[in-house]
Amino acid sequence: MTVNQTKNIDILIIGAGPIGIACALECKKQDLNYLVIEKGALTNSLFNYPLNMTFFSTSEKLEIDNIPFISNNPKPTRNEALEYYRRVTTSNQLNINLYEQIISVEKNDKGFKVTSNKTQYETKKVIVATGFYDIPNLLNVPGESLEKVMHYYKEAHPYTLQNIAVVGASNSSVDAALEIYRKGGNVTMIIRGETIGERVKYWVRPDIINRIEEGSIKAFFNSEITEISPDKIHIKTPKGNTTIANDYVIALTGYQPNFKLLEQIGVQFSKDGKRIPKYNTDTMETNINGLYLAGVICGGMETHKWFIENSRIHAKQIAQHIKTAL
User: Cβ distance 293 to 279 under 8 Å?
Assistant: First the structure.
């Protein structure tokens, strides 16, 4: 790895999702010297959402910095969100480096030394706004490494005329199951609980329940996959073990934040299994002086706790605190 010469900035923001963009906007308003580093595309997590996804939230709840988000319907689509955040970024000429991977963050007397795969930075403050969509929760069963096993879902077309197992009962699982079924896939849902998740979008939940009840989509409740083979899956059910034909497994069992980065820096976590990082709720500063958290990452394993709509305030809290500290 070749790293260019060290660059000096006041604030380095890790992650160019909606909340990272919101942090950049607030830093710009406060005339703070900032830079956003993103390992993938702009709003990389949103980019990797299913092509036809519709948000649960309305467009005004996804707005940042009071910049209007106009969508064709009250609940915007993935493409509309991508366009909105792109226009916010370009029209405000935000300082963002895309496709640059953070390797390490080290605390020192001046603040932090941050090393990426391209450059080394000396910065006084670091804001981590990396979300949670990059590390899937694994099934941890034999055969999970087979190429036919997916932990992300993009679109239904490749699964037409195929035997598909969708694991999970959340919004993403239900959306995938319904789309694939309507594109001609033979769908079976494998669900650990006894019913479809209560947080599934209210206009979608009756649809999936009806499809299961009529037999269009098969479902094993209180069940789990025990092994994945090239042409079948093995399932543990309340009625005993069973095996069904299978071409693809789409395991949408949730995701988790990049805890390794926070651990490396020295952030402390709750010890109750939720792994909630320690931070000041008024300033969003962690137990590491000068290191701040923003967005979904604040919830640890409780990835359903923070959304764009209730964490966009983090940007203002952080920028105001940094302004007084610099």
Answer: yes
Q: Which domains does the chain have, with CATH numbers?
A: 4-135+255-325 (3.50.50.60), 138-251 (3.50.50.60)
What span, in angstroms and rounded, lies between the C-alpha atoms of 296 and 239?
Answer: 38
What pLDDT score was predicted for residue 4?
Answer: 61
- For 61, residues 6+ apart whose C-beta sits below 8 A from its C-beta are 308, 309
Residue 241 and residue 275: Cα distance in Å, rounded? 34
Pairing of strands 96-97, 291-293: unpaired
Query: Measuring CA to CA, which residue among 152, 158, 176 is closest to residue 247?
Result: 158
Q: How confident is the model at residue 1 (pLDDT cuts 50, 70, 90)?
A: very low
Output the pTM of the full model: 0.91
Q: Could you report the per-residue pLDDT of 121-133, keeping only the tens digit for each?
A: 999 999 999 988 8
Between helices 205-214 and 171-182, what is the axis angle to 10°?
A: 50
CA dist., res. 314 & res. 295, Å (int)? 7
Residue 325 parent element (H or E): helix 313-325
Q: Which two tokens stand for residue 94?
A: 């935000």
Provide the β-strand partners of residue 167. 190, 251
List the structure tokens of 27: 């830093």
Q: Give tens-digit pLDDT for 177-212.
A: 999 999 999 999 999 999 998 889 999 999 999 999
